[in-house]
Structure formats: C-alpha cells, structure tokens
Amino acid sequence: MxxxxxxxxxxxxxxxxxxxxxxxLTKKMTYKREGIGAPLTEIxxxxxxxxFGEYAIAMTTDGVGSKVxxxxxxxxxxxxxxxxxxxxxxxLLAIGAxxxxxxxxxxxxxxxxxxxxxxxxxxxxxxxxxxMSIVGGETATLxxxxxxxxxxxxxxxxxxxxEVLTGEKIQEGDVIIGLKSTGVHSNGYSLVRKIIKDSPxxxxxxxxxxxxxxxxxxxxxxxxxxxxxxxxxxKYEVHGxxxxxGSGLLKLHRITKLGFDISDxxxxxxxxxFLQEQGKVSDLEMYKTFNMGxxxxxxxxPEVAPYVVGMTGGKVVGKMISSGIFVKxxxxx
Length: 333
Prior knowledge:
The chain is 29% helix and 26% strand. With 333 residues, it is α+β, with helices and mostly antiparallel strands. It has 2 domains: 32-163, CATH 3.30.1330.10; 175-331, PurM-like C-terminal domain (Phosphoribosyl-aminoimidazole Synthetase, Chain A, domain 2, Alpha-Beta Complex). The strands form 3 sheets. It has a 7-stranded mixed β-sheet with strand order 9-11-6-12-10-13-14, with helices on one face. It has a 5-stranded mixed β-sheet with strand order 1-2-5-3-4. Helix 3 runs parallel beside helix 4. The longest helix is centred in the middle third of the chain and has 16 residues, at 115-130. The two termini are 19 Å apart. Pathway: Purine metabolism; IMP biosynthesis via de novo pathway; 5-amino-1-(5-phospho-D-ribosyl)imidazole from N(2)-formyl-N(1)-(5-phospho-D-ribosyl)glycinamide: step 2/2. This is Phosphoribosylformylglycinamidine cyclo-ligase. Residues 45-159 form the PurM-like N-terminal domain. One of its GO terms (molecular function) is ATP binding. Its EC number is 6.3.3.1.
C-alpha cells in the first residue's frame, strides 16, 4: 500500500477491532428473562426479538454517525433525521418486522436557532415514510462531551413469531435481488471525510461528475427506507433479507454462512467512483466498507424472483453458493 491509498482502518475505524469490542461488551450479558419479554434471538442479528405472545417485538438502535460532521460543514440538518430513522427501520425490515414506534436521542454541545427544527423536519419525514409514530425521546446538552451534535434513536416493530426471517431458510441456488441505494447512506463516513480532506476538493465544490450539485449535498443524500420489503414478504416466499450498512458486503454473513456469488452487481452511483479515485481505494476495500449502490438484499427461490424484481424495481445480482462472498469473481471474504 502506498501512502496515498486510503482504507477504513487507517481513517480510524477498524472493523475487526469493532467486532472484538462488541464481543467483549456482550459476553457478560447472559441473563435472559422468561415468559413475556423472553429473548427470541441471540445478540448479533439486525434486530433483537422478544416474546410477546402471538407476536415477536423487534427492537433496533442506531445513529447517524460522523455524517453529522458534513451536515455541520454544509449548515444543512434537514436530512440527518431521515438517516436516523432509516438506519433503524431498515434493520427491522431485515428480520421481517413492521416498524410502529420510534424514540430519538439528540446530544448537543450547545443550542442554536433553527438547528433543532431542521433535525425535527427530517425525523418527521422519515417517520412518515416508515408509517410509524415518534412517541418520545431525549435531548441532552453536553458541552464537555459532545462537539457539535450526535443523533441516534431506537425503533420498535412487530412480526408474527411464525413469520420471522432470520436467514435459516436460505439455500444454495436461491436468487439474490439487490435494491438500489441512494448513495453512501450513513456508513463509512470516517473514510469519506479522510478522502475529501486529503483531496483537492471540499464539500462546497460542485461535483466533477454532476455540476448541478455540490459534493457535500451528494454526501448528505438521505438513506433509502425500504418499506417495499414488507409488501414482498406478505406476498411471496422470501428466504432472507439483509441491510447493507457498515462493513459493506461483509454484513451478508449476519444472515447465513452460505456464500454469495454477486456476478452482476448494481452499478454504483457516481459518488463511489469519485471517492475511490480520489482516495486510491481498492475495489476490495470499497466493497468491505460501502454499500456500493446496493442498500438492501432480498433472497428468494428462483421461481419468484421475476415477480419480486417487478414489485421492487430491484435487480437480480447473483445467486447463493456454498461459501464465500464474491463480486464479479473478486473475493470479499
């Protein structure tokens, strides 16, 4: 690697170290409630499930991450609320649950006019898209801890216990359908910011690939919310679902140890090529960090694939194999 090549780890986020931290954090969490509220899944899937009679209650928690630093730079905060909702809702959808309620957590260095209204605008829009209510939250002023702001939230959904999708039904030969992302979404921004910092560009410059918008505006495009997934699972046989977020395609192993042969991937939006060229990032590093144009995956039997593509506007990108994750022959893991 030359000095000019950028990686996620070198930008400050080491996925392997993060996994070790999670294992250390959770290894002592052994107590399990019984009866109503008993856990139905182990820690590590997209959402946690608890027993609620006929139903399972699904819970997720997530935040916007360092994308908020670009929002601060641009002075534009009306989309980060959508990101906060999307990161949670998409994780619920990945287990087959329907979102019903959300609470947010906004931590601030200091209050300033207009800021909270813009954040609230995005939260309201995200909740509307997700067909759920925001039922509360918390705002904390923490000048000794927070520099700028941090936005996170927790989402609750439900699913009948017999309709939970954990990926255990996936089998070799199943078809992989990819749903397009709207851009970088809300992951990998430590690497994004490092690339831009070391490039001749800044966030206010117009995109060399699209002179109608700035680089900052493109990077702030809100995360897609894939509510169409609920329609699919109610109508067709689905074997697995995956939300492609931090650590890119490595996320696919959350749902199965079988392999993924992505032979015809979705064409990534131009922002990814721009970042790759400016940061001299390898193809492998790109697919291990970003969604690369595919924000969600639906895995189905071959016979229903054409109908799911027609319903979602997605694309057949490959098929399930015995092991590994491959993109056009490139081994991701």
